[in-house]
Write a structure and sequence with these properties.
Length: 257
Amino acid sequence: MAIRKSKTPQSPTQRADQKRVDILKSAGKCFRKNGFHQTSMQEICAEVGLGPGAVYRYFTSKDAIIAAMAEDERRQARTMLSEFHDTDDLPQTLSAITRAFAQRYAAISDAGLMTEIYAEGLRNKRVGAVIKKAETEWVDGLADMLRTAQERGQIDTALDAQQAALLLTAMWDGIVIRQAYTQEVPEGMLALFDDMLKRWLSSAAVSSKRVKPAPAPAPKKAPAAPEFDFAPEAEAEPDADKTPTQAETDLRQMSLI
């Protein structure tokens, strides 16, 4: 006689959490298909198989659902940073994070959805506030990872950790947007990204390849002033053979008076 394995009954909190997850998944499916503004709450209710009252118990509006999606993304990013914070190989860890994001977005076609959420954050203050908070936490956490790696001598200490974290985040955003257009994992780009990280962050590589600024050119000497001969010209000797004119004779006689 086969023995049935009974499922462990869920607590009210667990059931509520599962319902919330189901609603977000169904809403994401509708959003990917029709976009935010073309999707109605009725469509979300039909997709999840719940009545409007049950859905509104968890989310008061469609904006609340979008904000919850951004909040979930923030929570997952924060968890990922805490897991990798004490890594011994930061470039390898950042590469693993990049590939994890890429594979995840490819598996559930979320690259386009996340792009839509960020775009919605520019129009919707509630969504924008959640995204801004998530971005601040992510960049600050990543910068903290970089500083820790610098203190351990794992990466170049001359890097500005905060600016480097911003640049890395911008590059990840670009990879997600590219993936949304191509609908495939950009393997070639990811491989180049790995190589770039190793070259850029590695202490030995950066120190050896840092270009020293060219020395300032020596000031040009002013051209020498031309030399001029200011010696007075010699007076001409009087011509003894020259016969004086009548005027000259008259002047000499007047001077003797």
